[in-house]
Amino acid sequence: MFLIYLNILVLITKHTLGVCTVDNVRDSQGEISINQKYIYCRFENISSNFYPKIKSFFDYYNSDRLEWLEISNTDNRILSSVALGRLPVHDLRIHDANIHEIQPNAFSEVKNQITRLSLKNNKLSTVEDYYFEDLSLTDLDLSFNNITSIHEDSFLNSARNLETLILKNNFLSELPPRLFQHNHYWRLTHLDISFNKLVTFHDQIFFSLQSLVELRMNNNDLKYLDENIFSTNRKLNYLYINDNKLHSFDNLNLATSIIRLINASHNAIHFLNFSNNVDIETLDLSSNGINKNFSLANATISHLLLDNNNLESTHDTFFTYFPSLSDVSLANNKLKQLNPNLFNNIKRLTKLNLAKNYLRSNDLSNVPKLLNDLRLSSNNLTEITFQSLHGFKHLQVLHLDHNQIRKIALGSFKDLNQLTELYLSSNKFTVLDMGVFVGLNSLKYLDLSYNDLHQISGNIFYNLRALKVVNFSKTKVKYSNLEEILIHLPNVEQVGLADNDWACSRIVNIIHKFGKKVIDVGDYNITNVEGVACHYEEIVAKNSVSLNRSETTINIDRVVSKFDTIVVLLIFLNVMFGFILLLTGIYLSFKFISFISKSNTRNNYSITNYDQELEL
């Protein structure tokens, strides 16, 4: 009970007094920067005495070394100028502070200091024109609030220097038509209005944003976009319109002739036509319900994503107008066969993803030979014939996992001299024939997991000298087989052994005897060796290290066990024989006693008769 009261007291103290600390800035990789620091205040109310509390930090570290001031987990419904004071900071972040309203001139004392302002995760419902009137910002983040309306002059004073504006995860159903209609927004490069409730835009709303590089308007309720809405955004490189309700684009006018990414996935687009030829590096049209009648014109595309659609088949001209395609993904469709002429016009195709369809083994003959990455996971492949992969001399990555493959013909991989990764997991292999891996001289990664390979010879792997990782998880591979295999694979660094029901000592022996690492699968909640589940075995020979001696001991135990069984059986027969003899003895004894008794009775009767005769 005392501990409960103590915790409550600590919590109250924190909320009353607040906690401010100085910490090192970390980069995107988590590396610490010794010379860059920031102030982090939790449970600290933003009041008139806030700045005096943290002034010592600025005096000690020098404001130039302090990257930002972050205030969070507090309760300040109204933000005022009295509360902020004269904070000598360029980057101010007030998060989770329950701010509902910003008073006029709230930032007047810091207008010459703050250039980056973040007010995310608060309770702002509107953005008034006076909220940021004193500031000249480069970055403004108002995400994760309750904003339903924005005044058209809300960002006007900051417009000349504003580069990034984030309004995502609010409740905006519309934007004021003149929100960006001033020429002051010439520096804005990143605009994020995603995850709102926007239904449509004024056709000229983005006209003034001529420096815009990235526009995120995904996850709204957009059904229509005017064909000229992006006609002045000459520097637009990244356009996110995914997860809306868009149906088509007819003569979409893009001011830029080159754009790196258009993400239009998760819509209902069946027709996409550009007014002028556009060079698109990546076009994502996944999850649009696209079928073979889909139309796409006036675009030069390098990477085309058509995953998760309704494609059951394709006609000869489906890719005719896209000769520059280098990467096509048709994963998770309903393709039952590949049109023989489908890829004839694509001369630069190097990566093809056909995973999660219904393709059969004979469809491999219709796949382009110049690929360096081919993915056929989760199809209906049943075998790999001698001709299936003939001519794939540039192939580096091959996924054949999660199929029904029972046999790979000898010589199937003979042309795959450049292959570095081969995935054969979750098939129906039981035996791999000698010579099956001929040609795979550059192979570095081999996945044979989840196959029933209870019979496998180490000699099969004799030519895989470059192999670094091999996965035998859930293959029923035996220790004796693996020992033989690893002799032929001197450069292997990692071995997958999960789900093979091995004794822990055998896995340890693989690590120490061969110097290999096992692939960690995270089985740390049970008996394991480096994340691979295993079980203890009964050690008969004390201090036995050699597994061969251990196996010999196990064989001796089996012989002893058989001998003990015979002995027990003989003892049982002896006991039964003795018991039968005992019963026979008792029976004969009773018979003998009965006979004597009857004899005595007769004798007595005879004597009595004789006495009677004498008396007479």
Describe what this molecule looks like in 3D:
This protein is α/β, with parallel strands linked by helices and 616 residues long. The chain is 20% helix and 21% strand. The strands form five sheets. It has a 23-stranded mixed beta sheet that branches. Strands 4-6 form a two-stranded parallel ribbon. The chain has a two-stranded parallel sheet with strand order 8-10. Helix 2 links the parallel strand 2 and strand 3 (66-72). The protein is extended.
Core attributes:
31 strands; single chain; Leucine-rich repeat, LRR (right-handed beta-alpha superhelix); two-stranded parallel ribbon; 21% strand; 616 residues; alpha/beta
SSE layout and pairing:
Blueprint: H1 2-17, E1 19-26, E2 32-42, H2 50-61, E3 66-72, E4 78-79, H3 81-84, E5 91-95, E6 101-102, E7 116-118, E8 126-127, E9 139-141, E10 149-150, E11 164-166, E12 190-192, E13 214-216, E14 238-240, E15 248-252, E16 258-263, E17 271-284, E18 295-305, E19 327-329, E20 351-353, E21 373-375, E22 383-384, E23 397-399, E24 407-408, E25 421-423, E26 445-447, E27 469-471, H4 479-487, E28 494-496, H5 504-514, E29 517-518, E30 528-529, E31 532-533, H6 547-615
Parallel strand pairs: 2-3, 3-5, 4-6, 5-7, 7-9, 8-10, 9-11, 11-12, 12-13, 13-14, 14-16, 15-17, 16-17, 17-18, 18-19, 19-20, 20-21, 21-23, 22-24, 23-25, 25-26, 26-27, 27-28, 28-29
Antiparallel strand pairs: 1-2, 30-31
